[in-house]
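new request in #modeling-help
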Amino acid sequence: MPEANSRVNDFAFKLANVNGTGSASANGLLMQAIFRMGIPVSGKNLFPSNIQGLPTWYEIRVNKDGRTSRALDYDLIVAMNAQTYARDIQEVRAGGYLLFDSSWPLDKAVQRPDVTFLGVPLAQLCVEHFREPRERILMKNIAYAGSLIALLDIEMSVVEELLQETYGKKKALLESNQKALKLGYDFAKQNFECPLALRVQKMNANGDKILIDGNTATALGALYAGCTVAAWYPITPATSVMESFKSLCERYRKDPKTGKNNFAILQAEDELAAIGIVIGAGWAGARAFTSTAGPGISLMNEFLGLAYYAEIPAVLVDVQRVGPSTGMPTRTQQADLLLCAYASHGDTKHILLFPAHPAECFEFAVTSFDLAEKFQTPVILMSDLDIGMNDWVVPRLTWDDSYKPERGRVLSPEQIEKLGHFHRYADEDEYFVTPRTLPGVSAKGAFLTRGSGHNRLGGYTELPDEYQAVVDRLAEKHRAAARFIPPPVIDSSRSSKGKGKGKGRTSFSLVTLGGCDAAVREALDLLGQRGIHGDYMRIRGFPFGAEVEAFLNAHDFNYIVEQNRDHQLKSLITLETGVPKEKLKSLLFYAGFPLSAGQVVEGLLSAMGKPDGEPTRGLGGMPEALSGAEG
Amino acid sequence: MPSISKPIAAPPGSQRNDVGLTVRDYEGAMSTLCAGCGHDSITAALIRALWELSIQPHRIAKMSGIGCSSKTPTYFASGAHGFNSVHGRMPAVATGAAAANRELHYIGISGDGDSLSIGLGQMSHAIRRNVRMLYVIENNGVYGLTKGQFSASADVGSKLKKGEENQMAPIDPVFLGLSIGATFVARSFSGDKQQLVPILKAALKHRGLALVDVISPCVTFNDHEGSTKSYLYTRKHERPVAHADLVPPAEEISASIGAKGVTTIAMHDGSRVRFSAVPEGYDPGDRAKVFQYLQEHQTQGMIPTGLLYLNESVPDMHERNNTNDTPLVQVPFESLCPGSGALEELMEDFR
């Protein structure tokens, strides 16, 4: 057990709730208050695919060093759900605390001698002070937030300010919240020794940072990229991308003179229509996108092949969730990788981007539109539920006003006039891209776009050499795009400090993608403390560039950490690079919760002792199975 | 088999329309469909309608899915962009293109397989959205490209060449359209150019989606005795309901309004559709009456044709969306990107 005084700004707590009872606002309030106190913090919402009545958890990790991956040990648990009481109590770290609703007696069978129980009669307090039944339920959450504010020493003035901002205009709601907060706060102050050893203390670590979720950041990227047409079908966890895009457009995209919309957002009848609308709009010359999750990508396969072969720009946002099939809609995974890389029948390959956090969602959303138009092809931005729906502390998003959208080779009426004849798939440039024309511009530039066999002129063909000339160019074009994919993030600082790189020693790396970033970096730090020094690479897109291949070749072993069962990133590397298979090993975590550093450490230690080729599979966040993994 | 010669699209070939083009300027590549295919007659009618309306070819966008019908965009308006997309998905692609550029004339050409089987959902939702486009279903009751299977529009009792009889109720695009809010519903026959050309012209001027179901016999697979989509059967059972003519804004309507069997409906651009020889009790502006009339006559084995229903009062997709009048593709980037200052300000919401 760490000393009590070392728990300042370094602990994790978990709120066990029943979904649909209004706990989200209380939990968000706590997270935001800690953020405003300048302390690095991360929140993970582990929610069920359900509207009301099932267990839901919210985890908050406070870490002065800025470590934001999911913690697996909880110093404090707020147990608000009788269904999960027994299990929640088991998850408290020895020496930790459990806050419970003492309106009813606690079952003796579930008590633990090594945990301090803090009973607050939340239901009783709310029944005494609120009249409406619904209010009595909702305000229990705000009341426990009040108790936590006292126990953890969260600044009341910051919380008060947040309440004012949220409910300022709704006076009755503001007063209810203030009252409930005070009930919990006063009870804790009067009955417990506040604050606990476990507590927060104002810092200045968040400087210019913001608290934002990936879906909102993605929508902002689409707004700034100048996207005008969006089509979608509601699906968890992607729905909020389009909801955000819509509210941003309402705010920023009204024509100042006419008040009319400089956007069209269409809720389609299904994902097939959604991507069809995007392709139609891209063909007509607009920047267009759709957002979806794995089941939607499955449906969109047919159209993705058309856009690839007919060379039409399209941007797709895949906020990945757990598959296969319906899978677990509210859990996170990175298992759409191979599907997206080769979506559709026939020889097809797509451009993929892998953001790691909301700031990259913003940046890569813009990149997606540029690449889609430059290469006249679909680009899939591969986010996931953890990035998309959780709030992350990231650097403030900025915009460079000198940005010019890359519209690709679109011929102007003047350019068309100068041509003898326009042929859609002829005259390729150094990136194997051919010029296109837009409908409505000129009769001379007219052509028939088709998903059927076509030759360089754009005409229908069934002739072997004519067909092959076009598909071979498409393969070259995909390869050429590698130079424009965001380069991998590489960190070799740990191994250069340590003994790992000496002559004759085995060198290794941890390679990952997307939202695993924070956990893998933290794992490398933890391993470093044990004298195990490895390098780091985070791949940020597909096709892979030369740097990816060089890095992998430079290490004896590369442990590829990813959130899917079938080591899809490793497979893609094996298929698409010349890196020897023997150099690639897998650490797989795919049971649906965000990755923690402890899992990676444990996985790597166990993998190092394994025979070649056998992947190491984590249990994906069943905390009891991993307690004690951290050193 | 009744023989029908392919109509020649250019009567006085040198005659020029208001934009100085001849009928030939609206033609496309040589058709590769079977000789005598009804689809080629529809193509000819379209060429005529586009020429008469003096639409610039490059302001047309020809949209299609997959099937014999979907090949036809190649055969007209070679000066227009076309998009031969995927099976049953033309409506979505057309919707997206129309969302991006509201100024073009969208002509979707589909078939009974493309629209009533695989694409039934997409067609229905394009109708509900009231996307401004001409939506032609070249309806022959059969799959041609895969050599003669029944389609969803095959009538009960209709027989395939080898004698197999369809027992499932047909999906009738006219009834379907009326029931889900279509604002322009017509049925015609590829063999009746006199009726079809004016319908297509009115459709191209319509404020929303104009659904035009055209019975278009498949000479190779569905023009035999026992078929209810043959030339012979259609000629025998067709019952034209009123004749619709598009009257340009400036022109006087010759027949006096209020005369027996004559009615007019004003189009959004100031032109009017003049219905003549309207049967007593029939009102092309009254959905319930149209429904009732069609039901009564179709139950008796008749095929009522003509511009059956027209409603110009329903807003189209862009009007509902309150989209800017400037096509979205023409809005400059500077008007779309809020810039660094706005972002800096917005970031305060995330503190």
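bot summary: Chain B has one domain: 23-241+279-321.
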